[in-house]
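A quick aside before the break. I want you to see a complete sequence-to-structure record at least once, exactly as it would be stored in a machine-readable document. Don't worry about memorizing anything.
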Amino acid sequence: MSGRLRRLSLRALVRRPLNPVLARELKERMRRKRSALVLTIYLVLLTGALWILYLGAGSGIGGPGALRLAALGRAAFHTLLFTMLVLVCFIVPALAAGGIAGERERRTLAPMQVTLLRPWSILAGKLASSLVFVTYLIVATLPLFGVSFLLGGVEPGEVVRGVAMVLAVAGTLGSLALTCSTLMRRVQGATVVSYALVALLGVGTFVAFGAQMLISRDGPEGRAQLALALNPLMATADVLGRSPNESSLLPSPFTPLQELIELRERAPNEDFNGGFEAGMTVATAVGGDQVIVTESGRSLVGPGGAPVPPGGGGLLAAPWRAPLVNRIPMWALALVGYGLLSLGGLALAARRLATPAREER
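That is the input. The structure line, written in tokens, reads:
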């Protein structure tokens, strides 16, 4: 008897229908000619980026043949991932911004709200349909990723991490676009606000970080870079590995971003007594003394800049250590921020959909 009940429960689980909103959205989206056009343009742009990299690399890579092929394969993978991320940032808002606003314009939102579907079910179906299409685009890119594997220099784990971060970015942008679609009355307005949020995350974070450095008049060394934690490009660059000689062989679009991330754990170059030579860092010791740490060792100086002779009783400061927030990986900070943004936006959207609005009745 227990075996029969187990089989019945398994059949019920297999036959359990999909979210009705998701099922309808998938059927409508995949039957449109626009979906095939988006896929074609997407693959053409990725292939074009790979072809431009191949033409631009030429004989500019030094070293043995195997090393040149590995550098080319690694640069090809990073270029494909960079182009994919940029395209996803443009495609996802267009997919999700019309989810609720489109229903409102067609006057089908109020009937959907008074059904047995809960607001979270409606939002989950709309968001999942966008993510399924993005996943479809990523799967179509796998043959191009195979070129990088043939050339070498790329590990499967790195591909998985990069694709997972692209999906995380797509989920966040889809949630924000869906929230805008819930709050706005028209698809056009929701789309404009969604792209404004994408520009804020992609460009506004760099502007904020640059303004922060201008105000404090310090370099990027030792900074927490919290303003860049939500930037999709920075988060994706942090999950990718980097060779020590990558910049000298064939730099990728992520190489400058990875170099900027590495500056988080370097000692800040603070100005002391009119400046100091390159390679020196300054730390404050007990009693106001300061230590100039050079590559050859340490030398202790007093508050006025006069050197303290050996045995003079001065206390050497401990070597500079990056703050805890600087030692947390950028991708971890980004995932936490993305999770908070997505949950907060969807909670606001669900509250908006809980009861049909007065103007929608």
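Two observations worth writing down. Strands lie at 281-284, 290-293, 298-301. Residues 270-306, 308-318 have pLDDT under 50 and may be disordered. We'll return to this after the break.
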